[in-house]
Amino acid sequence: MSIHEQLIRIFEDQPQQFLSGEELSTKLNCSRTAIWKHIERLRQEGYEFEAVSRKGYRLTSKPEKLDVQAIQNRLETKVLGRTMFYYDEVDSTQIVARERIAQGAEEGTLVVAELQTAGRGRLGRKWHSPKGKGLWMSLVLKPRIPLHFTPQLTLLIAVALCRSLRQSTGLPIGIKWPNDLLIEGKKISGILLESSAEDENLHYVVAGIGIGVNLTQEDYPDDELRAKATSLAIESGKKWDRTEILCQFLKELELVYDLYHEQGFGPIKLLWEALSVSLHRTITCHTPRGQAVGYAVGIDDSGALSVRLPDGSMTLWYSGDIELSPATHDSL
Amino acid sequence: MSIHEQLIRIFEDQPQQFLSGEELSTKLNCSRTAIWKHIERLRQEGYEFEAVSRKGYRLTSKPEKLDVQAIQNRLETKVLGRTMFYYDEVDSTQIVARERIAQGAEEGTLVVAELQTAGRGRLGRKWHSPKGKGLWMSLVLKPRIPLHFTPQLTLLIAVALCRSLRQSTGLPIGIKWPNDLLIEGKKISGILLESSAEDENLHYVVAGIGIGVNLTQEDYPDDELRAKATSLAIESGKKWDRTEILCQFLKELELVYDLYHEQGFGPIKLLWEALSVSLHRTITCHTPRGQAVGYAVGIDDSGALSVRLPDGSMTLWYSGDIELSPATHDSL
């Protein structure tokens, strides 16, 4: 057993007890500085301690862990999440999911990790995913659609996630084109879709989904992120059961996904437009090649944003980062 | 040096000479059966021997090999093929190209092999690619287009290949939707596009291209393939310079690819329709879910085939294998 694990064991065996640094360093045969470093690492992993001078440290809370069996018992889906790989820590659930696909993973396979050390968001950005505080996952889908309908899946997943989180928490969550979920302008969740195809045949999609469930202000590494991102706990003032949030999302996604296979993009488009915070307002689109301003009118069947430019002409935006102007319902 | 290589050396050192099996088995210190097996293997690799009883074997022709330096000297492109990886033998140039991309290969990188041991065609089919007789290659492209325009690239490459082969050989080559090249109903070339994307952003495309250049009837393993496939040599009655064919193709592709980036799919669509043998006739489409018959009218901007069904309604076919009916210009 490592010093790290021994330390956890000692604290867990004596709940509510203060243990001094000296006592611990004697027990574990290491320096007090080493003990202090281990405590800091445990804090990063989600353990919480009360530290009182001359008394020492007292364990006040342990990181919550997902229980695969409890999830399977609670799950109401036929396919999605029925095969599940759970990790304490991975570099990125997307990488693990792609490896699982190479080994034959089927539709619905879910990879969940308590901590991602190299989580990625859209456009190669780093995605902050601390231990036990959110849902960091990748879902394998193999939809029977031609390649060029793939962008519809991004919108479909955003719709299902938005609907399920609203149902679970009652919070006023909206979709920012194409696939961020926001509360009052702050990001609560991100979706990233990696696809692989041969000619017109989509082989698979790996949907990376991150949900900030129980993060507190202290869980964000800097003010910049704190200003842009939030969590269900911060917005509601209470902690949420991640198992419940996950199972509710998978249930809703399976419903919407089945609807899509039966009736096509039509109903998904209506749902997306109803939940969107990007429409009927002036927006700025940032792309690697520059930026443009326009008034967002709707989306088309390819998932592109239909935009009226300042000169009155209509155009389609296929990708990019959009910024919402504060005023709504203005028109260019 | 292996027995195989020693045998090649001995034959090459004595051109026009008959060498008996006994002589060879003594020189190489192996059985006459082993010599016979090595000769058979050399034949499969493209060496040709005259065998006369009591006299032995005489090397009459060696497999032609591509010369990377000669190709680079002859090439008139700026980007395509300027970085080139040449292999005597690989499993599949597609696999090698994907590995090269993981190591940072840029747009235009070309992987060429004299022989593929596990060459693949569309829909996972085996692709027959014997040594030194064709052009078996994979080209890395990183076009600046949204994901859902990817199918247009398949048509673009078919257009460039068809045009360049017509220019090089004068043969009446046409395009069968979506991306097979035919002469008189027999396949002369196949194209396979593997794509990888993140959300709407296409990361890369690997275009697998096989051209039957100098295959003879004997190079096809069975009558079934002989009935369906042909080569430039079989159709024209003469051998072709593979370097010339390759350089002409890359030059034409770069032209068409640049045109596409400047003017979009419009001009490519017109070129494709002009070269197509699939339009204005009744066709049968075979998909994993069954088959359908219709009259092919044109293609749309997504590369889908626009088809009039027997009941008069119009539909779009996005993928599948089509079979051309013998009669042309009939209408349902």
Structure description:
2 copies of one chain form a homodimer. Chain A is α+β, with helices and mostly antiparallel strands. Chain A is 34% helix and 29% strand. Chain A has helices spanning 3-13, 21-28, 32-44, 68-74, 93-102, 150-169, 223-228, 232-236, 242-263, 266-275, and strands spanning 48-52, 56-61, 84-90, 110-116, 135-141, 173-176, 180-183, 186-198, 201-211, 281-287, 290-299, 305-308, 314-317, 321-328. A 7-stranded mixed β-sheet of chain A has the order 3-4-5-9-8-7-6. Chain A has a 5-stranded antiparallel β-sheet with strand order 13-12-11-10-14, with no helix packed on it. In chain A, a hairpin with a 2-residue loop joins strand 8 (186-198) and strand 9 (201-211). In chain A, helix 2 (21-28) packs across helix 3 (32-44), helix 6 crosses helix 9 (242-263) and helix 6 (150-169) crosses helix 10. The relative contact order of chain A is 0.11. Mean pLDDT of chain A is 89; it is low at 327-332. The A-B interface holds A 122-123, 146-151, 154, 178-179, 192-201, 302-304, 318-319 and B 122-123, 146-151, 154, 178-179, 192-201, 302-304, 318-319. Strand 8 of chain A pairs antiparallel with strand 8 (186-198) of chain B.
Distance between the termini of chain A: 66 Å
Q: State which percent range the strand residues of chain A make up.
A: 25-35%
Could you spell the SSE succession of chain A in H and E letters? HHHEEHEHEEHEEEEHHHHEEEEE
Low-pLDDT residue spans of chain A: 327-332
Largest interface: A-B, 26 and 26 residues
Query: Rg of chain A from C-alpha positions?
Result: 22 Å
Largest sheet of chain A: 7 strands, mixed
Oligomer: homodimer
Task: Let me know the average pLDDT of chain A.
Answer: 89
Determine the structural class of chain A based on helices, strands and strand pairing. alpha+beta
- Summarize the amount of helix of chain A as a percent range: 25-40%
Shape of chain A: globular
| Beta strand count of chain A | 14
Strand order of the largest sheet of chain A: 3-4-5-9-8-7-6
What is the helix tally of chain A? 10
Protein name (chains A, B): Bifunctional ligase/repressor BirA
Domain BPL/LPL catalytic (chains A, B): 69-261
Keywords (chains A, B): ATP-binding, Biotin, DNA-binding, Ligase, Nucleotide-binding, Repressor, Transcription, Transcription regulation
Family (chains A, B): Belongs to the biotin--protein ligase family.
